């Protein structure tokens, strides 16, 4: 799933921003998506099961979160960018390329972030 999302993000950046590093931009975007998914899982664990995966010290928690995000970007860049030619062969003729527009991937990212923002309110209301 992430491979296809990376491929479509790469193509979108290649099409709309020709003078940038497409692999890095796609890696950054997919890492933000993965990071927000991890944060949503952490919210559910904290809300329903009272399990804290980050320390309660806010500064230390932010440092750990930023370090994790940096590792995700580095991993995604090193893992997916060299495989872009393989991905073109694998995904170029998919029927989903015609009906699944590029803006839907960015909408998915925004919706994931919104679920992280509104998630605590939903979880706290479910626990009442």
The quaternary structure here is: single chain
Order of helices and strands: HHHHHH
Q: Low-confidence parts, pLDDT < 50 over ≥5 residues?
A: none
Terminal Cα span: 36 Å
What is the number of helical segments per DSSP (H or I, 4+ residues)? 6
Coarse morphology: globular
Q: By helix and strand content, what is the structural category? A: mainly alpha
- The fraction of residues in strands falls at under 5%
Tally the structural domains. Answer: 1
The counted number of beta strands is 0
Biggest β-sheet: count, sense, barrel? none
What would a concise description of this structure say?
The chain has 128 residues and is mostly helical. The protein has helices at residues 2-16, 22-49, 58-80, 84-91, 96-99, 102-126.
């Amino acid at each position: 799933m992430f491979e296809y999302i990376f491929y479509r993000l790469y193509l979108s950046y290649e099409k709309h921003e020709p003078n940038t590093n497409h692999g890095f931009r796609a890696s950054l975007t997919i890492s933000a998506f993965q990071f927000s998914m991890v944060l949503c899982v952490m919210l559910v664990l904290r809300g329903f099961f009272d399990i804290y995966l980050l320390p309660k010290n806010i500064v230390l928690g932010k440092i750990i979160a930023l370090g994790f995000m940096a590792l995700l970007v580095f991993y995604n860049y090193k893992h997916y960018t060299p495989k872009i030619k393989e991905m073109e062969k694998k995904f170029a003729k998919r029927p989903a390329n015609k009906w699944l527009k590029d803006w839907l991937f960015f909408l998915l990212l925004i919706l994931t972030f919104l679920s992280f923002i509104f998630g605590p309110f939903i979880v706290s209301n479910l626990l009442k």
